[in-house]
Write a structure and sequence with these properties.
28 strands, alpha/beta, six-stranded mixed β-sheet, binds magnesium ion, Molybdopterin biosynthesis moeA protein, domain 3, Molybdenum Cofactor Biosythetic Enzyme, Chain A, 20% helix, binds adenosine monophosphate, elongated
Amino acid sequence: MPLVPLDEARDHVLASCQVLEPVTVALAGALDRAAAGLVTADACVPPFDNSAMDGFAVRSGDTVGAPVTLEVVGTLAAGQAPEVEVGPGQAVRIMTGAPVPAGADAVVMVERTVASDDGRRVEVDGEVAAGTALRRAGDDLRPGDGVLAAGDVLTPGRLGVLASLGVAEVAVFPRARVGVLSTGDELVEPPAPLRPGQIRDSNRPTLLALVAAAGCEAVDLGLVADDEAALTEAFHHGVATCDAVVTSGGVSMGDFDLVKVVLDRLGDMRWMQVAIKPAKPLAFGTVGGTPVFGLPGNPVSSMVSFELFARPALRRMMGFPPAVADRPAVPAVAGEALRRRPDGKTHFVRVIASMGDDGRYRVRSAGGQASHQLGAMAAANALAVLPDGEGAQVGDVVDAMLLGGGAVG
Ligand code: AMP
Ligand code: MG
C-alpha cells in the first residue's frame, strides 16, 4: 500500500468533518466555546457619563484661581440617578461610577479637597480642566460596535463584554460529544489482574483525556473485545449517540484486526498508511454520517495520531478557526542531535521544549522513541517535526509542535 502524504491524509480528514449546529447558551455555559455569529453592541457602555473617582463634581470654571471654596449641594452614590444640578459656586459629593450631575463638567478627586466639618462646603486646592476624572458614555462601546465575530473564542473578557451589554445568552458552537473505545482481547482493566499475555488498557483513559482537553465532551464507550458482534454493537451505539467516535487498535495488518472488517461493513472508511512515524496506520471515515477515527493501537501512536488528525478535526467541528483549532508550531533549536534515517516519512520526535536565554525555544529528546514507550510521550511537551532525511544536528532549527500543558519555560 503506497504511503499517503501527511497533508493529504489531514486534508481528507478535515474535509470530511462538518461544523456542528450552533446552540444558544447562557453566558455561564459559553466559556471557551467558539461564537457562532456576529454580535454587535446595541447600547453605549458605559451607558452614561460617570465619575472615575471618589470626589466632588464641579464646574471646572469655578476652580480657576484655586484654592476656592464651593457649596456642597448633595451626594451621589453609584447607582443613584442625579436629582441635583451643580450651579455656579456649587459642588456635589460623588462616588466612583455615579452619574455626573447636570452642570458639572469635571470631578475633583477627594484627595485634592478639604470638606468643612458640617459637610456643607468644600475647599478645592487646585484647578481642574473640563473633563477631568469623567468617564464618557460609550467610551468603551457604542451602538453598532462589533463585539464578537463567528469563531471568536468566548474568553472570560469577552463574556464580560457581553454581560456589560446585558446579553444573557449567546450563540456558540457546542462541545462535540466524542465517544472513545478501546479494542483488543489482550486488554484488561483494574481490578482484574493481568494474566499471561494481557496488558492494561492505557489508550482509553489517555484518549478520553485528550478529547476533554481538546474542549470536547468525552464519552466512554468502553473496552471492546476483538469480536465482530461486540464491535458492531459498540460502533452502532457510538455513532448513534456521539458527534464523533475515536477508537484505537485493530487498524493495522494483524489477523485479529477486526475493527477494519466491521467498520468497512458499517460505513465509508478509508484505510491509510500515512507517511509518518509513529502513527502510520490510520482509518478514517464516516458511519451513518458520523466521523470515526480509527487510530493505531500502540499508545504513542494513538496519541500522535490524535494530535495530527482527530484534535484539529474535532476543534474545527466546534467552530474554531485554524489558528485556534491547531497546536502552535514554533521554530526551535535542537539542543542535541535528533538523528533519523531516510524512510520516506516525516518523524515526530517526543521532545521537551524550553525557552532559552536567547528567547528561542530549545528541544531535547524526552526519552525512548519507540511507539510503545509512553513514558517519553508523557514527559514531552512538544513534537519535533523531522522531515525525511538524516534528522537534525545540534544547533539546527526544527519545527516544534507545542502540545500545551507541559512546562514550556
Ligand atoms: P493493534 O493495532 O490492535 O494490533 O495494536 C497494536 C499494539 O497496541 C499492540 O501491542 C496492542 O496490544 C497495543 N494496544 C492496542 N490497544 C491498546 C490500548 N487500548 N492500550 C494499550 N495498548 C494497546
Ligand atoms: Mg488489537
